[in-house]
Amino acid sequence: MLRRSIPRGGRAPWLLTSSRIFCLCLTVLLGQGGLLQGHPQCLDYGPPFQPLLHLEFCSDYESFGCCDQRKDHRIAARYWDIMEYFDLKGHERCGGYIKDILCQECSPYAAHLYDAENPRTPLRNLPGLCSDYCSAFHSNCHSAISLLTNDRRLQESHDKDGARFCHLLNVPDKDYCFPNVLRSDHLNRNLGVVAEDPRGCLQLCLAEVANGLRNPVSMVHAGDGTHRLFVAEQVGVVWVYLPDGSRLEQPFLDLKSIVLTTPWIGDERGFLGLAFHPQFHRNRKFYIYYSCLGKKRVEKIRISEMKLSRADPNKADPKSERVILEIEEPASNHNGGQLLFGLDGYMYIFTGDGGQAGDPFGKFGNAQNK
C-alpha cells in the first residue's frame, strides 16, 4: 500500500521494461496532463504542498505551493515595508508588480524561478521574469528595484535601459519564467490534484513514453530547456525523444561497435549509464558508462566524457570521447552502471560488486573493498 510519500522535487520515477518505458507518477503532484514536463519544487528542494491554514497575502498559492501561513505573513510584512516608500499613485502603479514578485517564493515552481536547483550558483535575489512582464515592470516601477534587492548589478540598472535589468532576470527555459509558468497548460493542468482511494492511499498512473526499444536502461533529460528525453539501450545506442513523444530517426549516439554485450537475455554488460553535465547548455558535456574489451581481451567498465556535436544539437560527437576511468571486471555480471550528479556538483559512479555468486573476489570481495 502506497502512503503519502512524494518524491523530492516532484520527480517521477521511471519503469523500464525490455521494450517499453512507462512513466510512473503520483497524481498528487503532476496530474495526468503534464507527466513529462511538470517539475514542481520549492526553494528547500522539497515538494509543494497544500498549506494547512489560509494564506491571506499570497492567496494565489493557498491551494498548492511552497508557503505556509507563517511565511505568508513574513512576505506580507516585507511588502508593506516596501510600499511605505510610495505615494498613492505609486501604490496603484507598482503594488501589483511588487506583490507578484515577492509571492513567487510561494510558487510551486520557486526552485526554477530562483535558480535553486543549481547548487553551484547563489539564489537569485529576484525570480526569473518573462521579458514582456519584466519590461513593463521596469518601465513603470524601476524605482522599486533598490527596495526589492540588494544585488548591485540589478540596482545599477535602476535608471538605465531596462534591457540589461531584464537580461539579468532571464530564465533560459521560457516555460518557467513568471508569469508564463502560471499560464502554461501542460505545467498546470491538474497540478496539486490528489486522487485517493477510500483508505487514503494515492492512486498511481502509468503513461507510455516509448516502445520498440531493445533493453532500455536509462532515460534522462539534458536540463537545457529543450524538454528532450535521451533513452539509452543496453546495446550501445542513445535515442532522442522530442516533447511531443516522437523519436528522431537518427540516434544521438551509436557505440554498438565498441560496447561489450550479447543479445542473450540476462547479459548484464553493455551501455549502462548516461548523465548530462549540470552546465550542459554551456559546455555541451555529458558522461557515459559502458562495458568494453581492453588489451588481452580483459573485460572492463569505462566511464568517458563526450561533447555534443557543434553541427547538430541532436547528435553527439563520438570523436570527442575522453576516457575518465576504467575498471577491470572479473566477471560479466553485477556491473552496476548508474551515473548521477549530486547537489554538491560532483559526479557519482555506481559500480557493482564484480559478479559471480557470493562476491568471491578479493579478501573482502569487491563490494566491501573500500
Account of the protein in words:
The chain is α+β, with helices and mostly antiparallel strands. The protein folds into two domains: 41-188, no CATH class; 213-350, Neuraminidase (6 Propeller), CATH 2.120.10. The chain is 20% helix and 21% strand. The chain has a four-stranded antiparallel β-sheet, with no helix packed on it. β12 (338-341) and β13 (347-350) form a beta hairpin. α1 (69-83) runs antiparallel to α2 (88-102) and α4 packs across α7 (162-168). It is elongated. The two termini are 37 Å apart. 31% of the residues are buried. It comes from Eschrichtius robustus (California gray whale). Residues 54-177 form the Folate receptor-like domain.
Quick structural gist:
With 370 residues, the protein is an alpha+beta fold. It has 2 domains: 41-188, no CATH class; 213-350, 6 Propeller (Neuraminidase), CATH 2.120.10.30.
Give me the secondary-structure topology.
Blueprint lengths: L13 E3 L4 E6 L42 H15 L4 H15 L7 H4 L17 H11 L3 H4 L3 H5 L5 H7 L11 H4 L1 H4 L15 E7 L5 E5 L8 E5 L3 E5 L11 E2 L16 E6 L3 H4 L1 E9 L5 E10 L7 E13 L9 E4 L5 E4 L20
Antiparallel strand pairs: 1-2, 2-3, 4-5, 5-6, 6-7, 8-9, 9-10, 10-11, 12-13
Helix pairs in contact: 1-2, 4-7
Jot down its keywords.
370 residues, Neuraminidase, 2 domains, four-stranded antiparallel beta sheet, 13 strands, elongated, disordered N terminus, HHIP-like protein 2, glycoprotein, Quinoprot_gluc/sorb_DH_b-prop
